Amino acid sequence: MVEISTSILSIKKEDCMEVFSKLEMAHTDYFHIDVMDGKFVEKNTVQKMIEYSGYIKNMSNIPLDVHLMVKDLPQFINTFGAFKPNIITFHLESIPRNKVKEIIRLIKENNTRVGISIKPNTKLADLYEFLPFIHVVLIMCVEPGKGGQKMLEESITKIKELKKYITENHIDIDIEVDGGINLENVQEVKDAGSNIIVAGTSIINSNNYKDTIKNLKGTADNS
Fold it and tell me: What is the phi/psi pair of residue 78, to 5°?
């Protein structure tokens, strides 16, 4: 079953409460929290995402899907772990390899599912040794740090390769994809093997959140 994680990065503060409510009624599966520290990526969204996460936890039962694009992982794991998210994902490129299992343990101590994300230029093989210890792989289909980018076509090959590897090695893990996903390319992404789709502007800028989420899931096609 495909799930939709709606990125709230582009939502304006004056509209946020209304939009969060509409997204809940539209049955998004997650609120995707894009946390950027201005160091790992250029943009800084920390205060905005803390504020938005607090609002959502006070008004909604929809789980949070926290995507950390940051350098100081322990600090931000503690900060966003306080909101009891369903998933906390960190970037493989943000820390030395000998620290990765330590960060995985830290996230698990928060009773949270663990995700690892990789940038477009990072090789899948760099991930393989960590797959048995995590729950989600987040494949970035664009360079992290900016919304509204076009999906890189080579992402499809990477998703297929990961799906083949986890199937052959009997690893139970979700494949999440993020960046430039819309109604035109979502089927290709799903066919490649992903089962959690991050979408932001394609939902937020649409006229009907419920229909857009339904179409991204492909519910109508499978009914």
Answer: -65, -45
Residue 178 appears among annotated catalytic residues? yes
Q: Which residue is catalytic, options 15, 29, 34, 172?
A: 34
Predicted TM-score of the model (pTM): 0.94
Taking the C-alpha atoms of residue 179 and residue 223, their distance in angstroms, rounded to an integer, is 27
Q: Do 139 and 194 form a contact (C-beta atoms < 8 A)?
A: yes
Alpha-carbon gap, residue 36 to 46, rounded angstroms: 6
- C-alpha to C-alpha distance for 190 and 203, rounded to whole angstroms: 17
Write the DSSP symbol of residue 180. Answer: S
182, amino acid identity: N
Token code pair at residue 28:
């998004």
Contact (Cβ atoms closer than 8 angstroms) between residue 114 and residue 104: yes
Task: Give the position of tokens 């809940």.
Answer: 24
Catalytic option among 29, 37, 65, 178: 178
DSSP H or E stretch at residue 13: none
44 DSSP 8-state letter? B
The predicted-structure confidence for 176-208, as pLDDT tens digits, reads as follows: 999 889 999 999 999 999 999 999 989 999 999
For 35-65, b/e burial (b = at least 16 CB within 10 A) is: bbbeebbebebbebbbebbebbbeeeebbbb
Helix (H, G, I), strand (E, B) or coil at 178: strand
Residue type, 60: S
Q: How far apart are CA 112 and CA 145, in angstroms?
A: 24
| Alpha carbon distance 219, 213 (integer Å) | 9
